[in-house]
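Notes from the pairing session

We agreed to fold both candidates in a single pass and log them together. This is the raw record for the first candidate, unedited. Please don't reformat it; downstream parsing expects exactly this layout.

Candidate A
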Amino acid sequence: MVDSLPVSVNAFEPKFFYFAYGSCMCPVDLKRSLGELTHPYVIGAATLKGYRLGFFRRSRFRNCGVLDIIPDPHAHVEGVLYHLPERLSDRLDIREDGYQHEMITVCHKGTRYSQVRTYTVIEKLDQEVAPNDWYFSVVMRGAVTCGLPEPYCWKLFHHMHHLQQCQLIQANLPLSA
């Protein structure tokens, strides 16, 4: 049973649970794609066990690496659990072009939520691609705004920063003869 669902204009409209782990963690950025406020639909920080984050997709729209989750039995991913109206589903699918639905189970404040939608990259790259500064800041803004644990936020920050530093080093290496 869920006791803290957001109140919407129509409390009886069909809804679905959605777990965001990248730029969609930021309700302000999610509003840009969905066309309405998404803060009221935030349940809060949630944990997905058995996966880890990686930047295994280059977004054509953002021209940088974007986040994906991949199975890893020794890891977990922190993200934001939403309870979105079904009428926003098509718009979310359009935003997540290049990703596919995956149904998962997450935990929020000791409660397990099953049949939660998330998105995973369809065609994963072999190596991670660094995010640009804009994507970096949107991911961090969502993580902090929605209350992800501070140690996880720092881990996320350092991972993205490391990828950017590696990209800079590679860009400045002389070409091989």
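Candidate B (folded immediately after A)
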Amino acid sequence: MGSPNKSEEKVGKAFKKSGLSVYYQYSVGPYTLDIFLPKLKVCIEVYGPHHIETKRQLIDKARQEYIEAEGITVYIITAQQANTADEVRNLVNRVLRENNAPSKTKKDKDAEIFNGLQNHLDRWVNSTGFDTKPPETQQPVSKEKAPKEEDFATLLDKSFPIKRRSKREL
């Protein structure tokens, strides 16, 4: 797998933001795909000006037929379109819609994290015997049942471990 050019990189980043794995310069038989989305079995080709030539169009047609015969759907965007945020966004939405892939926005990802934290907090509260009723209806909590800050921090550490990297990994 090689390095993407700037136009391919812009398109690939947009698909990564939607939660998909992206491979650049992926080989399929004798051909190299600009961008491959394995989960959807989709290829994105970014066409530069050389794809206008008649001879190149014949090669591109044979190439696309081969790739589609391998069960991969091909989408084409020009390099000029790939450098326009609206065009890239439209392509991402079209690919996701046509391939029944739910897109994950930052809001969706944040909601997942919040819900996970809320579940852990609820479990912690339940495990400590902490009374969650409104203050006017609460019974006094004995010192033995009072939650401790370090307990919650420990629970979070266990629930969301941080992978520490050694200097060699960086």
